[in-house]
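Study this chain:
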Amino acid sequence: MDVSAYMIAAAVAQMARDDAATAAFAALDSRNQAALEQAADLPETDLPSFDALAADEQALVHRVLASALGTDAASVA
């Protein structure tokens, strides 16, 4: 098998995996889309400023952000 045939076979196999994953998650994607459409009409609540949070709440915000964004010593909140 030459390199071109190998690359084509690999691309076809990857597309088949992508199609299978899309099919496997189609029902979930549909439910997510329906939930997003329902939530579009919900009013947003006013959130308190970071400074208005208690010390333990601020620490929780920092932990969640560090978990989500990593810890590169940059202040994000």
